[in-house]
Design brief:
Oligomer: single chain
CATH topology: Porin
Helix content: under 10%
CATH architecture: Beta Barrel
Shape: elongated
Largest sheet: 8 strands, antiparallel, barrel
Strand order of the largest sheet: 1-2-3-4-5-6-7-8
Structural class: mainly beta
Length: 167
C-alpha cells in the first residue's frame, strides 16, 4: 500500500510540473486558538509570508495577535512562528503540511504577571485554493504546543482562514 501511495504522489508531482508554483505568498489571516491551560478561545489576526525554496519545501513566517476586535482576554499575547511548509500545488489546489517553531509573548496581566515569553511549536495541515489572478484562499488547522516551564507543554487547537497574493 505504501508503494502505491508513493507512486501516486510521484505521478501527481510530475503532472503538477505544468502548473506555475508560487515563489512568494503574502497574506492576512483571522482565526482562533483554543487555549487549554487558560480555558479561553480568543480570536486572533495576523499576517504571513511564504517563500518557495525548492521542490516541495517552503519557508514560512507568521505573526499573530490575540485577542482582536475589542475583545477581552485574561492572557493577551503576540505569537510568532517561523518554519517549514511541505507540499505541492496541483492545479488550483495546494495541500501542505507545516512545522513551525516560535514563541508566544504574553502581555503583563493580573493573573500571572511573570508569564512572559514561552516557546511554541505549530504542526498541522494547510489547504490553499489558487486563482489565476494571483490571489489565494487558505485554511490552516493545527496543534500549537506551548511550553509553560514547570507546567509542561500544553496542546492547543489553532485554526485560521486567510487571503494572500502570490507572485
Amino acid at each position: 500500500m505504501f508503494r502505491f501511495l508513493l507512486a501516486c504522489s510521484f505521478v501527481l508531482s510530475l503532472a503538477a510540473a505544468d502548473f506555475e508554483q508560487p515563489r512568494v505568498e503574502a497574506g492576512l489571516l483571522v482565526g482562533g486558538l483554543k487555549e487549554g491551560i487558560f480555558g479561553e478561545y480568543p480570536v486572533l489576526a495576523g499576517g504571513r509570508v511564504s517563500v518557495h525554496t525548492f521542490w516541495l519545501l517552503d519557508a514560512e513566517a507568521e505573526v499573530n495577535r490575540f485577542p482582536i476586535g475589542g475583545a477581552a482576554a485574561n492572557y493577551p499575547a503576540t505569537q510568532a512562528l517561523f518554519g517549514a511548509r511541505v507540499g505541492r500545488r496541483i492545479g488550483p489546489f495546494g495541500l501542505y503540511g507545516k512545522l513551525r517553531p516560535g514563541f508566544v509573548r504574553f502581555d503583563r496581566n493580573l493573573y500571572d504577571p511573570k508569564l512572559g515569553t514561552q516557546a511554541a511549536l505549530d504542526a498541522g495541515g494547510i489547504l490553499e485554493l489558487y486563482s489565476s489572478r494571483h490571489a489565494a484562499g487558505r485554511f490552516d488547522l493545527g496543534d500549537t504546543m506551548v511550553w509553560y516551564g514547570g507546567a509542561g507543554a500544553r496542546h492547543q487547537l489553532q485554526w485560521s482562514v486567510g487571503l494572500s497574493l502570490w507572485f
